[in-house]
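HUMAN:
Could you generate one sequence with tokenized structure?
ASSISTANT:
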Amino acid sequence: MGIKDGLSKLFERKADTEEDYLDLDLDIEEYEAELKKDDEVKMYVKTAELTGLYDVPELKKEIYAGNMLILDISLAKRDKILVEKAIKDLKMATLDVGGDIAGFGDEQVIVAPTGVKIERKKLSGR
């Protein structure tokens, strides 16, 4: 067997079998608990929906925990007063921790923790 034959066998792709794939039925809460044990994790980027004022305390808890939120306000947009009140409360909590908050499109708000500034200018490829 020559070098060429040896290298081709080394890099030869084997047919995929069912055993080659992982079971992707993951428990996210268990995964997050594992990550919380890791001292290197400083912040999570979390997505949430604002459906009413009852969501605000939980969202504020995440802000005070130092996490970044990508908030979907599309369900609450029908009630302008609700959205204004909720965003005002979230803005106060964000300012309290030295973070930043900005709208992203018509239906999303990004809340950044301490030390993170949101750039409001869009990047352009030109």
Summary: The chain is about 35% helix and 15% strand. Residues 22 and 68 are 30 Å apart (CA to CA).
